[in-house]
Amino acid sequence: MTDDTRPFVAVPLPAAAIDEGELVTTTLPSGMKLCLGRHQGALFAVKDECPHAEFPLSEGTLYPSGELECCWHGARFDCRTGAVRGGPTDLPLVRFEIEDRDGSLWVRRAI
Ligand code: FES
Q1: Pocket of ligand 1 (CB under 6 A)
Q2: Domain ranges, residue 23
Q3: Hey, which bits of the chain come out as E strands?
Q4: Nearest CA to ligand 1 atom 4
Q5: pLDDT band at 3, cuts 50/70/90?
């Protein structure tokens, strides 16, 4: 049981807009840009900003291994955990919990 009552925020994008292996960007009402994707059927959401030099991750590549590569300097991350897998940064991705509620997406910052 969890006592985490932080609210989720609606994502202005339906779940159906995110295909396997693709990256999509969207903007929350707060102005935060998200990079969303689907790997092995599971959705993920991270801040659409590479921790190395803030390039949009949604312009990168999601590999079948689950590695998300930033296309500017080649930093690579695990799309599920946000952990660094290689490249010029030691900083992990800013991750969000994501829920698909009958086709509508909701997120909140992962802790
Ligand atoms: S901005 Fe992403 S690797 Fe440099």
Answers
A1: 50, 52-53, 55, 70, 72-75, 87-88
A2: 9-95
A3: 9-14, 23-27, 33-39, 42-47, 61-62, 67-69, 76-78, 84-86, 95-101, 104-109
A4: 73
A5: confident
